[in-house]
Write a structure and sequence with these properties.
With about 220 residues, this protein is an alpha+beta fold. The chain has two domains: about 10-100, Tumour Suppressor Smad4; about 120-210, Orthogonal Bundle (Arc Repressor Mutant, subunit A), CATH 1.10.10. Helices cover about 15% and strands about 30% of the residues.
Length: about 220
């Protein structure tokens, strides 16, 4: 079932907010971690004021507010601002995905977040990892799951070591977290995934960080 949309809507595609929607009902619409935002995203990698959507002359424009972890539109990082089109996918700090539904579009009354097509799947609510239909048991540690979740939601984008510290060790500002600690965590996570599949899901991008390779194989 569908409904006509008189004002643009943002729909969360995945994560804890999957399925939620927000109507853009003002000329300036703020998204971030701060309590003064119209959409509050409780993720540490999201900046307090991350992006703003403005409405002027019938156009809706997305502005990145010099966010720490960046904003992607349809998979490409934006610099400054860009005009939104119906169906655009906005990725906030590679951890929250929102779909922009324009005023001339119809939207489903229910929204099912997509499932990645790779052999590896994660259930964020249950903190479960499924590879080739089999659940990893015992479960990953919290640090291992946070790392895998970051890479998984990045869908192949490179996650820097700073990104990993921010997500896995929140609130530390990197103090006491060495390069060796990150490498050890990656190594342990690879070993756990190899219990179900020896395929190398976590790829090292030298000089930049890590990314997931979850293409069907």
């Amino acid at each position: 079932m569908i409904t006509m949309n008189e004002k643009p809507v943002l729909v969360a595609r995945e994560g804890q907010l999957a399925g939620q929607r927000w109507t853009i009902d003002s000329d300036e619409f703020l998204i971030g971690r701060g309590s003064d935002c119209q959409i509050i995203l409780p993720e540490r990698q999201v900046s307090r004021h991350h992006v703003r959507i403005t409405h002027e002359n019938g156009r809706y424009t997305l502005h990145d507010l010099d966010s720490r972890n960046g904003t992607h539109l349809n998979g490409s990082q934006i610099e400054g601002s860009t005009v939104l089109q119906d169906g655009d996918e906005i990725s906030i700090a590679l951890c929250v995905k929102l779909v922009f539904v324009g005023t001339d579009a119809t939207i489903p009354l229910t929204f099912e977040p997509p499932t990645q097509e790779g052999n590896l799947q994660i259930d964020e609510a249950q903190r479960a990892v499924i590879i080739n239909g089999e659940e990893l048991d015992p479960p990953l540690s919290l640090a291992q799951f946070r790392l895998l979740e970051l890479l998984y939601n990045g869908e192949g984008a490179v996650c820097s070591r700073d990104d990993i510290v921010e997500v896995v060790w929140p609130g530390t500002d990197g103090l006491g977290v060495s390069e060796q600690a990150i490498d050890a965590l990656v190594r342990r996570l690879r070993d756990r995934l190899a219990e179900l599949d020896e395929y190398n899901y976590i790829v090292t991008v030298r000089g930049h960080g890590f990314r997931i390779d979850n293409e069907p194989h």
